Amino acid sequence: MSRLVLASGSRFRRQLLDRLEIPYAWASPDIDETPRDGESPQSLVHRLSLSKAERLAADWPDHLIIGSDQVAVFDDRTLGKPADEAAARQQLAAFSGHRVRFLTGLALIDTRHGSHRVCHESYDVVFRRLTPDEIARYVERERPLDSAGSFRMEGLGITLFERLEGDDPNTLIGLPLIRLCAMLRDAGLDPLTNQLITHRRLGAR
């Protein structure tokens, strides 16, 4: 039986992790997600995903703890969750007919050894041209205020796109499962069998 913890209160990330059929606990970490001056999108998602996992580390010894965070990058700007419906409509209007890149940071802390690994995955979304009425209707129906980029791909957000480009569509929802499985194997846990492969130690990257 594995000892796995998801450092997130997102039901969408939990739904993704449920697909691996590995027993896990979850808790919502309370951290400050404010970007630092001059911080790149990559550095931001690395720092926040690791900070989320670190916040739970003291309470979960002898566990593997997963942290994840996501931002949208558009027109050389880093965008997080919209503050309100007006901001969500504004984001989607700006995205209309354009490509937006989403970066999802992924951290895995092994509290057995005090080691960790951090990475990020990217995924591109090409939005079709959206009318103001379509944008308003979407935001009203789905209220995507807790999602970077003001949409939920796992819901009605899929109606906004022309195409998706990337290696792992789970990245766009907030938890890159392909990379996570590789990190779990590196940590000595086989996701297929939920058995320890060997006692390995994650190297910080």
General description of the model:
The protein has 205 residues and is an alpha+beta fold. It has helices at 11-18, 41-57, 85-95, 132-142, 170-173, 177-186; strands at 4-7, 25-27, 64-74, 77-79, 99-110, 115-127, 161-166, 189-190, 195-196. The protein contains six helices and nine strands, in the order βαβαββαββαβααββ. The strands form two sheets. Strands 1, 2, 3, 4, 5, 6 and 7 form a seven-stranded mixed β-sheet that branches. A two-stranded antiparallel sheet has the order 8-9. α3 (85-95) packs across α4 (132-142).
Major pleated sheet: 7 strands, mixed
Number of alpha- plus pi-helical segments: 6
**Topology as H/E string?**
EHEHEEHEEHEHHEE
Overall mean pLDDT: 92
Summarize the structure.
This protein has about 200 residues and is α+β, with helices and mostly antiparallel strands. The chain is built from 6 helices and 9 strands; from the N terminus they run βαβαββαββαβααββ.
Which labels suit this protein?
7-stranded mixed sheet; alpha+beta; 205 residues; single chain; two-stranded antiparallel sheet
